[in-house]
Amino acid sequence: MSRYRIMTNKARVVVFILLVSLTMLSACDSGGSGESQPPKGFYVTGVSLHKPDWVPANESADDKAIITVSFNRAVDKKSVTSAFFIVRNEQTAEEEVMDYTARFSKDSKTVVFISTKSVANTAIKPDPGSNLLYIILIADGRVIDSSGELLDGDLDGTPGGKYSKILKRTI
Q1: Which of 27, 57, 148, 150 has the most CB within a 10 Å radius?
Q2: pLDDT surpasses 60 at 147
Q3: In the chain, what percentage of residues exceed pLDDT 70?
Q4: What integer is the mean pLDDT of 136-148?
């Protein structure tokens, strides 16, 4: 009988510790409110390979590489020139850092990076059906918003940190 009580008490202690641990983890993950909190500061809200309608058609031929990056605040236009835009052929591993022009939305919260030459005229030389990886890299401490705050690239809640995103496109 005594052995049964000891096991029961041990089981109670284990269950109690698990419940306390789960409660603490839940409070840490959600800030204690039960809902996830949006990131703080200046950060990237989205990246795509689509050209927004406001970019003139004559500035973005179908054979050029395009990456659209959206931010939660207006970006300082001069600081965006430090971003790297790389296209890599997934099959051959050939890659090229693309020269680009940057186009900004009216509110400067969206930047469209358009390669200055077609992907076919690069060292990548993709065949039809090739998978291309479009890579955007923003080094730590390079991009700022219109008020001078650094991009929180790694979303750790403090300004700074590098940002990178890889998107795939089959041509």
Answers
A1: 150
A2: yes
A3: 75
A4: 92
The more confidently predicted of residues 67 and 125 is: 67
Q: Which long-range contacts (CB under 8 A, 24 or more apart) does 162-166 make?
A: 162/137, 162/138, 163/44, 163/136, 163/137, 163/138, 164/135, 164/136, 164/137, 164/138, 165/44, 165/47, 165/135, 165/136, 166/133, 166/134, 166/135
Q: Tell me how far apart the alpha carbons of residues 4 and 20 are, in angstroms, rounded to a whole number.
A: 24
Nearest in space to 75 (alpha carbons), one of 165, 163, 135:
163
Tokens at residue 133, please? 């990886």
* pLDDT band at residue 36 using 50, 70 and 90 as cut-offs: low
What backbone torsions phi and psi does residue 93 show, to the nearest 5 degrees? Answer: 70, 10
| Residue in the structure block whose two tokens are 């390079």 | 142
Nearest to 136, CA basis, from 159, 160, 162, 103: 162
